[in-house]
Specification:
Blueprint lengths: L13 E3 L9 E4 L1 H10 L7 E5 L4 E10 L4 E11 L6 E5 L4 H14 L3 E6 L10 H14 L7 E2 L3 E2 H6 L6 E5 L11 H7 L4 E5 L7 H9 L3 E4 L8 H15 L7
Parallel strand pairs: 1-3, 6-7, 6-11, 7-8, 7-9, 10-11, 10-12
Antiparallel strand pairs: 2-5, 3-4, 4-5
Helix pairs in contact: 2-3, 2-7
Length: 254
Amino acid sequence: MPATPAYPPHSAPRLYVDVGLSDGAEIRLDGSHAHYLLKVLRIKQGDPLKLFDNRTGEYLAHVSAVGKRDLILMIDGKTREREAVPDLWLCTAPIKKDRFNWIAEKATELGVDRIIPVQTERTQSHNIRTEKLHAHMIEAAEQCERTALPSLDPLVKLTDMLEQWPSERHLFFADERIHQSGEGSFRKALVAHDGPAAILIGPEGGFSDTENEMIRALPQSVPVSLGPRILRADTAALAAVSLWMAGRGDWNPG
């Protein structure tokens, strides 16, 4: 019988598993998870670890059996429920692969509920490697002790997304053209527009004039400025998410 680890073991490895977890359940791990635990971390029978499933929460477990290429985990008990996630979507045009991966990682850390890659006239990258992008999101959640992952949509054309836009969801549209006019205060927009929300960020080079008009014609669209400085697309995405989280999200307890 393995010794009961200190509870909770803060140094224990933490992994996402795509199966529903419950107290007392046994889970067999193979493939990349098993390789990482056995070959990289040199985990042994009886060692503790934490698991989360993006469904029910986080659990403490221990290794009950070790094979050459797999291992069996025993769930000891739940440490946390799945966290509540602010109702914010991030709709953003794909950019260079490494920078788009970075957006997905940081959006996961910040607590975005859904990521929607959007194809625009000036989008330069159309090949979304969904599995790779999802792996970056999982790694961010594992390292930052998230118990929930954003959902990840396939690439959608801007026109199609706008045609299907839900009537109850505000679309905060980052429009670099409006700052000089003195309009588009994000702070004022957040005060005036409560409820389900999304942020729309364009590609490198911004939206075309036709796209700009199309977005503004959407009744739920709220044009906002991200300040006097020109921001790269990846910086703009995370700046906008941070502003929303501070104004309408869960960054302000109580």
